[in-house]
Amino acid sequence: MIIPKEIKNTITELNNARFEAYIVGGCVRDFILSEVEGFDHMPKDWDITTNAKPEEIQKIFPDSFYENKFLTVTLKNKIEITTYRTEQGYSDKRHPDEVKYANTLQEDLSRRDFTVNAMALRLPFDHAQGKHSGQATEIVDLFDGQKDIKNKIIKTVGNPKERFTEDALRMLRAVRFACQLGFIIEENTANAIKENSIWLEAVSQERIRDEFVKIIMSDNPAIGIELLRELNLLKYVLPELIENIGIGQNKHHKLDCYWHAVKALEFTAKKKFNFHVRLASLLHDIAKPRVKVGEGENSTFYNHEIVGAKMTFQILNRLKFSQKDIKKITKLVRYHLFYYNTDQVGESSVRRLVRQVGPENIQDLLLVRQADRIGSGVPKAEPYKLRHLKYLIEKVAKDPISAKMLKINGQDVMELLSIKPGPKIGYILDILLGQVLDNPDKNKKQLLEKEIEKLGKLSDEELQNFAEKANVAIQQVETKEDQMTKAKYWVT
């Protein structure tokens, strides 16, 4: 992997000023992972730590910005440089009460959350030449982070209980890293999460939301949800989902409500569906336990989509999602149960569905339906019925072929020919439409006006004959377009 030039240059400036400087944190982890076969984790953010104080950093980089209590200076190019530091006291279970300068890199690394994030990368520097030497980079690994990467383990630096009581959000971060990296959480670390999960109550909903979204958007969100449940964290993130555990369904489902939702989410990740579809798929049946009537294969869940939409609205509001996200995901949950049979539902019903959901949401709704089907244990995500619905949605979304497509209208015809309303106007418009379909370049007002003047000299009988021929051509175009749309979705 190539370390960005601006990072190298920044470290060079610090080294030339006789300060230590290291690349540190998650980017080092990703740097190492990028060298491991099967991983594609290119660092996105590069952080630098140094023994230089903030005021000393600012002397080296006059255009930098510093206004925080965490000893971090931000350069003009957004690179962050943080002075070695230690942290004491976490009364709010999230932020240190006091931040102090540390004397060594070891002190700085020992305050970090997990071993895989507590490594540093040193670029060998030749002080005589004032530049980095050609020697290989050196990884400073004081807590066996490389070993844990090799063994695919998430493990805290030092005592896990201390790490989680310092910052309760680290418990969610452990789950998130396990999902993103495909790692497992080390036993002592997992046990400490279970024992201290209650501290998550002290963390803001915005912070919880951010980690939850990263879990949902990872390659393994289903594993993430199950880890949250196993580690007693789910009740602080999405307690409504716990109600679904062990709630049996009817003959249309092979799994209970909880595993149905988890499997639906798993499918969305495999297909790389977007965030809205993933979250809607997880929540689409969230209300079933609250509306269930009866037991066994004939149990019912009347109005679960309506109650579920209300619950989804409340959940997303609680987690401080944006109003735009709340509106969209709530709609996907509300209408996920739409009914469609090719021989029973016509174009008017499809138009109504599109109007209710919104044209901009209809494709995502169909993806939620696919996830719902897979979560129900059926082998096909997109059967013929769903493909036929896609075809019909596209069909009704298209403007019908009509005289409205022309850059001229009946009023224009009457004014140009000085005639009153009558069949002649319709004949002329049909003829013009046929000509425009054959050659779209003719759909210009000036050209159409000239053609109207020519047609105005013909008799009504002649116009009628030409109009009938034009209608045949129009029907042929409509038939061809419909056949192409059907072929697109493999329907007949």
CATH architecture call of the largest domain: 2-Layer Sandwich
What low-confidence regions span 5 or more consecutive residues with pLDDT below 50?
none
The 3D shape can be described as: extended
CATH topology of the largest domain: Beta Polymerase, domain 2
Number of helices: 24
- Terminal residue distance: 52 Å
Helix content: 40-55%
Number of strands: 12
Can you tag this structure with a few keywords?
492 residues, alpha+beta, Beta Polymerase, domain 2, Hydrophobic Seed Protein, 6-stranded mixed β-sheet, two-stranded antiparallel sheet, 24 helices
Question: Could you provide a short overview of the structure?
Answer:
The protein has 492 residues and is of the alpha+beta class.
How is the topology of this model organized?
Blueprint: H1 5-16, E1 21-24, H2 26-33, E2 47-50, H3 54-60, E3 72-74, E4 80-83, E5 85-88, E6 98-101, H4 105-110, E7 119-122, E8 125-126, E9 131-132, E10 138-141, H5 145-150, E11 153-154, H6 160-166, H7 169-181, E12 184-185, H8 187-196, H9 205-216, H10 221-230, H11 234-237, H12 239-242, H13 257-270, H14 275-283, H15 288-291, H16 304-318, H17 323-334, H18 347-357, H19 362-375, H20 384-397, H21 410-417, H22 423-438, H23 445-455, H24 460-488
Parallel strand pairs: 2-4, 11-12
Antiparallel strand pairs: 1-2, 1-7, 3-4, 5-6, 7-10, 8-9
Helix pairs in contact: 6-8, 7-9, 7-10, 10-13, 13-14, 13-19, 14-17, 14-19, 16-17, 18-20, 20-24, 22-24
